[in-house]
Amino acid sequence: QLVESGGGSVQPGQSLRLSCKASGSMGGLCMGWFRQVPGEESEGVARITAGGGSPAYADSVKGRFTISQNHYKNVLEMNNLRPEDAGMYFCAMRSGGCLPTMIPTEYNYWGQGTQVTVS
């Protein structure tokens, strides 16, 4: 089970810190964050190996977001937020290793989501 926390409503330029906690060892090798906006496809935002290596980011968030992994907790630090960063953010785990792509169907386990509003 994956449980996200840390969403909220902020003004442009401000920061938020999202956390994702796994209920014990789920055996996943890759953790990712996805953003869902109503009427649009889910977008991969960032991913990292379960060991905390090889972070990767969507072009739209490079230099502003930082993903980290420590044991069973994953954190997405979001700085200098923009209105277009708003959406429902989901934490996801992939059983296999991280892939160069960040496609939702590549991930096996999902959290319930946490809402981010920037306005």
Structure commentary:
The protein has no helices and eleven strands. The chain has strands at residues 2-5, 8-10, 16-22, 30-36, 43-49, 56-57, 65-70, 73-78, 87-94, 109-110, 114-118. Strands 2, 4, 5, 6, 9, 10 and 11 form a seven-stranded mixed β-sheet that branches. It is globular, with a radius of gyration of 13 Å. The model has no long low-confidence stretch (mean pLDDT 94).
Question: Which structural traits does this protein have?
Answer:
single chain, 119 residues, mainly beta, 7-stranded mixed sheet, 4-stranded antiparallel sheet, 11 strands, 48% strand
Secondary structure topology:
Blueprint: E1 2-5, E2 8-10, E3 16-22, E4 30-36, E5 43-49, E6 56-57, E7 65-70, E8 73-78, E9 87-94, E10 109-110, E11 114-118
Parallel strand pairs: 2-11
Antiparallel strand pairs: 1-3, 3-8, 4-5, 4-9, 5-6, 7-8, 9-10, 9-11
* Low-confidence spans: none
The helix tally amounts to: 0
Helix/strand order: EEEEEEEEEEE
Rg, rounded, reads 13 Å
How many strands in all?
11
Quaternary structure classification? single chain
Task: Name the overall outline.
Answer: globular
Report strand %.
over 45%
Characterize the main sheet.
Answer: 7 strands, mixed
Tell me the distance between the termini.
Answer: 31 Å
Helical/strand content category: mainly beta
* Helical amount: under 10%
Mean pLDDT: 94
